[in-house]
Write a structure and sequence with these properties.
This protein is α+β, with helices and mostly antiparallel strands and 727 residues long. The protein has a domain at 32-176. It is built from 26 helices and 17 strands. Strands 9, 10, 11, 12, 13, 14, 15, 16 and 17 form a nine-stranded mixed sheet that branches. Strands 1, 2, 5, 6, 7 and 8 form a six-stranded mixed sheet that branches. It is globular and about 105 Å long. Bound molecules: adenosine-5'-diphosphate and magnesium ion (MG). The site of magnesium ion has 3 residues, from loops.
Length: 727
């Protein structure tokens, strides 16, 4: 039997960069999207206007208009050679779900007709989708229907017309990520619009914006195929760190291998056809790690585009004989992958509400949104942790320059100074002199462009970066809707509370509106001062602050996700009608179950690898050494030990590690099986986190030692140095 790993390495030199028909012309942008100008071409003016209106108001289409839209879509899709259509949605398990139907239907008289009408467009009934099940409660098992999300235009992917959709049960319960995201966007729109109207009566809406930065690793596919752990769990469960690590050479922006460049170019081209405005790629900190960033968009569309990008990456990589690793921590000891989420708010007048403005009033508006976001976050640090926690992302958070699990916020010196000054504003009505002073010398002096001084603090979990907040704890393979929904909801509620407080001062204390705003803002600063941290996250001063303020800490997934059951979180989502308590509970259970599944698969995969790959390999090598010692015995008789000391030591070390692997694997399996007898899912997850997960580390330690001991030619799994440096 040949060694798969050595075979893959020798094939590498023959693997060529894959060509594709490159066409980077800007005309291709949105060529595969049923965007506005195509809608105008295919629809009557009236139908177009009514669809736009329905999208803006969030109301359903009448059947007549839905029929017109469906037939327009069908005509366009067929002209683009599409043969199928699908409602494309984001289930709570997996990345996307699709059920493809052809446009053809058999009529009673036996003719094939192309049929696609309004009913099919607006809602479609997926059957027996795994997404509809999965939990331990009946609520999941309700079958659901998918309905077109009017805010996200249909697009063609391969030969399929994809209709971005929400997925809800017959009872109306959300079964996906999109439904609560849209509701949180609406809640935030309403709350933020009413604040904007303090400053500008023309404002009619506010939109959340999102720019994600997708990090990922690329490895050679042949090499990846030698690693069952990569294929089954998305990460390496063993592997010794390479001698040449990430810190030795500056990988940032260093040369990208040709095969990878071709893949990236094709990916960008496909992204542009689908209307995804990606613009940069460069090497990240670790070898073979890259990042793809788009120009920011409205949050709902940005989430759709991120999901689409992850899917595209996987599909295209296969063509280029590459393997994408979206896992947050594919390699131990090496920088992991996140998906920084840049978030802001734009009003209907095109103003970024988290950007300082041109005059004192605009800056007061900026401070209102800036400060209220901070208050919201400080009230819900646990929810933000819960939103970003997962079995895979928790391996990344808090290691190798990733943000820690505990939330703190970086805002930079200039704004820290503004807040300090603001705290000294007098209570009650402001004198004309004080107001002039404030407007001229405090808020009037906030520079329009705040210097982005975050570079030293790339590890802050949440950072204000001049005109947006950047949430850095989101995991690379996550659906970022989960975090953005949480952020939108907490800020929406905070803005509602802020408005109540301001209006009360205006009515009850007869204050002027801006006096009231100053008063409320001043009082709020103390609420969030504790979560601000400007220093080095991995320093002693941070740990000190952590202890002093007893920041919310959840060390494992069950604890982090457990926050979803806190009454403050349940009330927040319920009050805003983003998720009702039952929908939230379903989410909690799915998250716990995902954690259990992940650990179970990792532990099984590791057990199999140890028993079928590692121990047999180590034994094979041991018998080589044993026969070598036998040779010495033949030559030197009883004196052989004198000449074969090293060999004897190798034999002993091999034995020690083999035996540790044997017993460790056995104990891990027993512990897991025992945990599986616990009926309560939450308790079972806790035992998995505390007792099963540590075995993964312990076992890998011995395995990694063996990797260093055993003759290279015998080792069956691609090593870190090969995965990370060969393409
Ligand atoms: P850099 O941090 O490299 O200087 P930028 O500040 O332009 O780059 O932005 C980084 C990311 O933040 C990009 O994805 C960008 O689209 C996004 N971004 C910029 N402005 C906003 C905004 N107002 N809302 C949301 N995302 C934004
Ligand atoms: Mg960033």
């Amino acid at each position: 039997m040949t060694n798969l790993r050595l075979g893959s390495i020798s094939k590498l030199s023959q693997t060529q960069a894959v060509s594709f028909s490159a066409d980077q012309s800007s005309q291709n942008f949105r060529s595969h999207v049923f965007c506005e100008h195509k809608m105008r071409r295919y629809l009557t003016q009236e139908a177009y206007d009514r669809i736009q209106k329905a999208a803006i108001k969030g109301i359903p289409l009448s059947s007549n208009i839905a029929d017109q839209m469906a037939s327009a879509l069908k005509a366009w899709a067929i002209s683009m050679n599409a043969t199928h259509y699908t409602h494309w949605f984001q289930p709570l398990t997996g990345i996307t779900a699709e059920k493809h139907d052809t446009f053809h239907e058999l009529t009673d008289s036996g003719q094939m007709l192309e049929v696609f009408d309004g009913k099919k467009l607006v809602q479609n009934l997926p059957e027996d989708l795994p997404t509809a099940k999965g939990g331990e409660r009946n609520t999941f098992e309700a079958r659901g229907f998918a309905a077109w999300d009017l805010k996200s235009p249909p697009f063609i992917y391969g030969h399929t017309l994809c209709i971005p959709a929400v997925f809800v049960s017959y009872t109306g319960a959300a079964l996906d990520y999109k439904t609560p995201l849209l509701k949180s966007i609406r809640a935030l729109d309403q709350a933020a619009t009413s604040i904007c109207r303090y400053f500008d009566k023309n404002v009619s809406s506010v939109e959340a914006t999102l720019g994600w930065e997708q990090e990922y690793f690329i490895v050679d596919r042949q090499l990846a195929l030698t690693r069952p752990d990569i294929l089954l769990t998305g990460r390496t469960l063993m592997g010794h760190e390479p001698a040449r690590g990430e810190h030795i050479d500056g990988h940032y922006f260093s040369g990208i291998p040709n095969r990878v460049l071709r893949f990236m170019h094709e990916l960008e081209q496909e992204c542009h056809q689908l209307g995804i405005p990606v613009k940069t790629h460069h090497n990240e900190l670790a070898p073979h790690q890259f990042e793809l960033t788009p120009i920011f968009e409205e949050a709902n569309l940005a989430v759709d585009h991120n999901i689409l990008v992850m899917d595209l990456m996987n599909r295209l990589a296969e063509k280029h004989q590459l393997q994408i690793l979206l896992h947050e921590k594919p390699f131990k000891g090496i920088n992991g992958s996140g998906k920084h989420c840049n978030w802001s708010l734009t009003n209907s007048e095109g103003m970024n509400l988290l950007s300082p403005g041109k005059n004192p009033m605009q800056n007061l508006q900026f401070l209102s949104f800036f400060i209220n976001t901070l208050v919201a976050v400080s009230k819900h640090t646990g929810l933000l942790r819960a939103a970003t926690s997962s079995g895979s992302n928790d391996l990344r958070l808090g290691t190798e320059e990733a943000p820690p699990k505990v939330l703190s916020v970086f805002i930079g010196q200039q704004l820290t100074h503004v807040l300090e000054e603001l705290e000294h504003v007098s209570k009650g009505k402001l004198s004309p002199a004080e107001k002039t002073e404030l407007k001229l010398n405090l808020i009037g002096k906030i520079p329009e462009k705040l210097l982005d001084n975050t570079d030293l603090n790339r590890t802050a979990p949440l950072a204000f970066t001049g005109n947006k907040f950047e949430l850095r704890t989101v995991g690379a393979q996550a659906n970022c809707a989960q975090s953005i929904t949480a952020l939108n909801a907490m800020v929406a509620q905070q803005l509602i509370d802020f408005k109540d407080a301001v209006d009360r001062l205006v009515e009850e204390e007869d204050m002027k509106k801006d006096d009231a705003i100053f008063n409320v803002l001043r009082d709020q600063i103390k609420d969030f001062r504790d979560i601000l941290f400007e220093g080095e996250i991995y320093s002693a001063s941070w740990k000190e602050k952590l202890q002093k303020h007893q920041w919310f800490q959840a060390n494992d997934v069950p604890d982090a996700v457990g926050v979803l059951r806190d009454s403050a979180v349940v009330d927040l989502f319920d009050k805003l009608e983003v998720l009702n308590p039952q929908e939230l509970e379903v989410r909690y259970e799915i998250r716990i179950q995902a954690f259990l599944n992940r650990v179970r698969v990792e532990s099984r995969t590791l057990g199999d690898l140890i028993r079928n790959h590692i121990i047999p390999t180590a034994l094979k090598y041991q018998s080589v050494v044993v026969s070598n010692v036998g040779g010495f015995k033949t030559i030197y008789g009883d004196n052989f030990q004198e000449h074969a000391q090293e060999q004897m030591e190798i034999i002993e070390r091999l034995s020690r590690h083999i035996s540790a692997l044997h017993s460790g694997t056995r104990e891990m399996i027993e512990t897991r099986k025992k945990a599986d007898t616990i009926n309560d899912q939450t308790k079972r997850a806790k035992v998995y986190a505390q007792e099963v997960v540590p075995f993964l580390e312990e076992i890998r330690y011995h395995c990694d030692k063996l990797e260093l001991l055993v003759e290279d030619n015998l080792w069956p799994l691609a090593k870190y140095r090969e995965l990370l440096f060969l393409i």
